[in-house]
Structures are given as C-alpha cells and as structure tokens.
Design brief:
2 domains; five-stranded mixed β-barrel; four-stranded mixed sheet; alpha+beta; OB fold (Dihydrolipoamide Acetyltransferase, E2P)
Length: 222
C-alpha cells in the first residue's frame, strides 16, 4: 500500500462518523470562488460544493479573484472526489474535496489563499492546518502579502452591519476592531498593527472594547 493511500486512510480515521457519507465523484465544471465549486457527476447531476473547514476571500475582497484563480488551477476540468460533511443553509453540499489524493482545502491554506474556518473546523487535523496558515502568513505568500488581510467572516459581518456601524470612526471604514490580548490596545482596519500576532480579540465598536478594558491605539482609532 503506497504512502498516499495510507495518508488518505489515516485522514478518514480522524473524521467524525457523519463525514463518512457516500463519496461523490465528478468533473469540476465551474469555480464560483476560492471555496465553492460545481461538479458534474457520471449521472449528469450538477452539485455545488462548498469546501469544508476553510474560508476564502469574498469576490469583493482583496485577493478574492486570486483565490478563485488558484482553486481553478487546482481543479477546473479535473475529476475530483468529495467526502460530504453536511448541507449548508443555501443547500450546498459542504465537503472535503480531493484531487489526485490531495486535499484541496489543505492546499489552499498552505498556499496562502484562505483561512482555516475557526467556527466550523473542529477536527483534530485543524490544529495542523492552523500551523500551515501561520506558516503561510509568516512567509507572506498569497493573500498574506496584505498584512491587513481581513478574514471573510469578519468582512461579511461588517458588510451586514455597515449601516449601523457608520457612526464608528474607523481607519479604513469597516466597523471591525482587533484588540491586542496582551497590551489591551485596540486597532482599526487599515492600521499597520491590525493583524498583529496577539490581535486575536474582535470588537464591533470602540465602546465595546473600552468597556472590556481595551484602549484605542492613537495611530489606529480616531
């Protein structure tokens, strides 16, 4: 048994039982964005797949188009296997996609075109993927060329709350703040410290941060 097959079988053992649903197979006929593809099965059924465990930049974000281009280069026109995990609220199949025995989500993270989706990545291998994400960030590859890269889930939330956040005077205009868990300083989007190593606490307003003991950084929040 070759090394790739052994690694694949080991990966399956790490997954919860609900991911071990019927494997899908099909040719990738469309790439909507970095983490969404459509396959055509041998039965001529088109199935939209949302890649599990990761989140890529939205089309309106910086590097959204480049993330889509990377995913296309990996799978467009190729035969892939999909291990379904669940269905999302849009009716898409959420699953792990494999091309030539390589996990597409992992490749996207390794090459710096997506984030590990913290909210949904709960398997044991997620810690390894977080380390791959950190390595890509340290190397400054892919979207990490932008040191102020905003995770898509924050970007989407900011867009939803854009109207109510207009009163927040934030450098860069988005009502999302990052707090430095060590220094307790608060940074707005566009600040050079926005994605600092310890900037892991997210706030929707200055008042929320101040009430929690954080103080606005004089270069980042007016």
């Amino acid at each position: 048994m070759n090394k790739i097959i052994i690694q694949f079988l080991f990966f399956l053992l790490l997954l919860p039982t609900n991911i071990l649903a019927k494997t899908l197979q099909g040719k990738v006929i469309h790439v909507a964005d970095g983490d969404t593809i459509t396959i055509l099965t041998p039965q001529k059924e088109q199935i939209k797949i949302r890649l599990a465990a990761i989140d890529c930049p939205e089309s309106g974000q910086a590097y959204g188009k480049k993330a889509k281009k990377f995913t296309s280069s990996m799978v467009y026109g190729k035969l892939v296997k999909v291990k379904p995990v669940t269905k999302d609220r849009y009716g898409r199949t959420v699953g792990m996609v494999f091309v030539n025995s390589s996990n597409l989500s992992k490749q996207i993270i390794s090459n710096g075109y997506g984030w590990v989706f913290r909210k949904y990545c709960k398997w044991r291998f997620c810690d390894d993927w977080l380390r791959l994400e950190e390595t890509a960030r340290d190397r400054g590859i892919g979207l990490w060329r932008d040191r102020n890269a905003i995770p898509p889930w924050e970007w989407r939330k900011a867009k939803r709350n854009e109207g109510s956040n207009k009163k927040n005077n934030v450098v860069g205009g988005l009502g999302i703040y990052h707090g430095n868990a060590r220094s307790k300083s608060l940074h707005g989007y566009g600040c050079k410290y926005y994605n600092c190593k310890n900037c892991t606490v997210v706030f929707q307003s200055v008042s929320d941060a101040v009430n929690t003991g954080y103080h606005p950084h004089n270069e980042c929040v007016k």
